[in-house]
Design a protein that fits this description.
The chain is about 40% helix and about 10% strand. The protein is of the alpha/beta class. It has a single domain, classed as TIM Barrel (Alpha-Beta Barrel), CATH 3.20.20.70.
Length: about 300
């Protein structure tokens, strides 16, 4: 491994406190620093898991606060072409859930950044829910996002994860409706993932007109931080969205860059510069921080 990729270091946070999930700890820390969170999504195993480990360390070094690792799946209903292609590359390299847990264990030797797995429900069922929870805790996973798991069917997974202080992060969409949003959020932990628009993931040129109204509805119903994702790809969009939430999620723009630049000599530097530019709008002046949600 060359010097550019050898980001071997320890964070100041040290070992995990078993009584505190890293996600809530991160949001509390950021609020004290008058910052909002940048959540970055990459597909685990794209192009391979060794690169994924190095990418996570690069993302944190550039300013990412929370990492989402996508579990590749052959039928990703919520994902657009960019992430679908990344999933295919990851599957081709032999990536599976057990190997992702091993990669997280390697990451945990070097950093305590919160790590969330975004996965469809079928891989969890095939692995076994109890084993998923146990291996997630052992490796250092802090939460799960399961986009195809309805609230009404989430109880079994939620119980097993909560016993090990792992968050099952709720997703809400503009089509969810006020009453359903309240019920979904009531059972969630970590943060609320607001899907900013209908459709699949992917880079968009503009933002939905109803974003302020939608996030206002969610914030009014939520006692946990609110994050917005889907279609956010530029520093300008990050700045605009961050007015209405506690965290901004960027995925497809990163995955697209990884797909185009992996293997190039400057690959990690390219990713570093991209993420650094996305983080800059989230470093607030003191007078801009009144909207930050207190973490309970």
């Amino acid at each position: 491994m060359d010097r550019e990729t050898a980001f071997i270091y320890k964070t100041e946070e040290g070992n995990r406190d078993p009584l505190q999930n890293r996600i809530s700890g991160k949001f509390g820390k950021l609020r004290g620093e008058n910052k909002k969170a940048l959540v970055t999504f990459i597909t685990a195993g794209d192009p391979d898991l060794e690169t994924t480990v190095n990418l996570v360390l690069t993302l944190e070094r550039a300013g990412a606060d929370i990492i989402e690792l996508g579990v590749p799946y052959s039928d990703p209903l919520a994902d657009g072409p960019v992430i679908q292609q990344a999933s295919q590359r990851a599957l081709k390299s032999g990536t599976c859930l057990s190997k992702i847990f091993k990669a997280v264990s390697l990451i945990r030797q070097q950093t305590q950044i919160p790590i969330i797995l975004m996965t469809y429900y079928n891989p969890l069922l095939r692995y076994g829910l109890e084993k998923v929870a146990a291996d997630a805790a052992l490796s250092g996973v802090d939460g799960f996002i399961v986009p195809d798991l309805p609230m009404e069917e989430s109880g079994a997974l939620k119980v097993k994860l909560s016993l090990l202080n792992i968050s099952l992060i709720p997703l809400v969409a503009p089509t969810s409706g006020a009453e359903r949003i309240k019920r979904i959020i009531a059972g969630g932990s970590g943060f609320v993932y607001c899907v900013s628009l209908t459709g699949v993931t992917g880079v968009r040129e503009g933002l939905p007109d109803n974003l302020k109204e939608f996030t206002g509805l969610v914030r009014g119903a939520s006692s946990i931080p609110v994050a917005v994702g889907f279609g956010i790809s530029t520093p300008q969009q990050v700045a605009a969205v961050s007015q209405y939430c506690d965290a901004v999620i960027v995925g497809s723009a990163l995955v697209k860059t990884i797909g185009e630049k992996a293997g190039m000599p400057e690959f990690y530097n390219i990713i570093y510069r991209l993420v650094k530019s996305l983080k800059e709008p989230l470093i607030l002046r003191k007078e801009d921080s009144a909207g930050l949600r207190e973490v309970k």
